[in-house]
From TrEMBL:
Pfam families: FMO-like
MF annotations from Gene Ontology: flavin adenine dinucleotide binding; indole-3-pyruvate monooxygenase activity; N,N-dimethylaniline monooxygenase activity; NADP binding
Catalyzed reaction equations: indole-3-pyruvate + NADPH + O2 + H(+) = (indol-3-yl)acetate + CO2 + NADP(+) + H2O
Annotated signal peptide: none
CC cofactor: FAD
Domain of life: Eukaryota
The family this protein is said to belong to: Belongs to the FMO family.
GO biological process: auxin biosynthetic process
Pathway(s) served: Plant hormone metabolism; auxin biosynthesis
Record keywords, A-Z: Auxin biosynthesis, FAD, Flavoprotein, Monooxygenase, NADP, Oxidoreductase
Protein name: Flavin-containing monooxygenase
Record has Oxidoreductase as a keyword: yes
Amino acid sequence: MDNNNHLKEVEGKRVHDHFNNKKAAISAARRIMVPGPVIVGAGPSGLATAACLTEKGVPSLILERANCIASLWQLKTYDRLRLHLPKQFCQLPLMPFPSNFPTYPTKQQFLTYLETYTNHFGLDPVFNTTVVNAEYDHLSRLWRVKTQQGLKQEETVYLCQWLIVATGENAEEVVPYVEGMDCFRGPIFHSSSYKTGELFRDKNVLVVGCGNSGMEVSLDLCNYNARPSLVVRDTVHVLPQEMIGRSTFGLSMCLLKWFPVRLVDQFLLLMSWLMLGDTSQFGLIRPKLGPLELKNVSGKTPVLDVGTLAKIRSGNIKVCRAIKRLTHHAAEFIDGSRENYDAIILATGYKSNVPYWLKDTEMFSEKDGFPRMEFPNGWKGAHGLYAVGFNKRGLLGASIDAGRISEDIEHQWNSEAKKLMAFSRSLPLPPNQDLEFNSMVVN
Ligand SMILES: Cc1cc2nc3c(=O)[nH]c(=O)nc-3n(C[C@H](O)[C@H](O)[C@H](O)COP(=O)(O)OP(=O)(O)OC[C@H]3O[C@@H](n4cnc5c(N)ncnc54)[C@H](O)[C@@H]3O)c2cc1C
């Protein structure tokens, strides 16, 4: 029996069962059949994939928990944020950044670009819709994607042949437990809620975490005359954003075409030493592995310095060891020192939320919510499951995934899905039957 007939039989049987046996009704949830892929997440990765699919004539449906596109950028980032990498490494497929944008576009410019991108490709995500469960049904050979929508949390189940996970590497904030956290009297919040240093003028602020966010938040606090201290628990590579007139990232990419990664790392470290000096003097001890090798092995991104190091050198930003415990107004550190603070900002990063909702442990690891296969093989799983934007290579990596996924689905779509769509439309549904067909994005 071919796939089409099989589907027809199974879904027809379901429809029949539903009428004859109320207990067997799937649930009170609305059910919608989606002819093309369902994409979970309307961040840059989801938008890029939908655009590539649209260009190939494959309709898709984007489900987004927030009320806007690119919610990470719109709702969870600070005002001074610019792209860390030059714009040519951050553009999405099929549409470059406007030529009048600077090399490192501001957050607002990036958002304007994404709005234009969305409109240009006619993308129309379904907002305020959180995917709470997605499971492959071996009987019907369809993904059943359960969502909750709006304040009333109304449930809908989307049925589709392809499921594209685009919920991002940064879906949920990581908030570590620190002893004494409950008794600290000032605010403690994640860097995703930090907008500007304006509120912290003349305040002592402890910033926990020395990744790109922690470093930039500290710099921003300084610019508003706050007194930040930066907790540096681990080793860290800090590199200048530019070297010999080129972006460090661009230069590295170029050198890697010709030289082995260790040699490129040695070059980057030499240049960093010449330009920034010995960072261990300020408590920023470098890891044993070089910056690119470390990124390959662990995914840990080097910090690109945009001025923080100068503030550390001048003493405007203090570097502290790991926190031992918090008290009402102070932090005690493992080296025995103690300091009073008015507020604590946790720049402690993010994690994937895939294990919470995707009932598939084959492709994605339950441990960290990332595909088990390393780049470049982590984008495709079994039964029409795909991942975009999980290769720890930022927006450039997401664009690569989006291209591969859209090509792969295009082949299947051309051979199979049109038949499925024809079948869907010909299914003899009784009036008011609860299986609907999504046609809003069908070309
Ligand atoms: C401060 C900061 C600066 C960065 N700067 C750069 C940079 O300069 N260059 C670069 O290449 N990368 C950068 N990154 C990396 C960043 O991950 C990418 O820029 C980009 O946002 C990744 O896009 P994404 O679509 O994969 O994930 P996201 O942008 O996180 O989008 C995922 C979307 O999925 C939605 N979602 C999550 N769970 C569900 C669910 N269950 N149901 C429905 N919707 C859901 C979210 O609401 C979100 O809108 C930065 C990250 C941060 C935090």
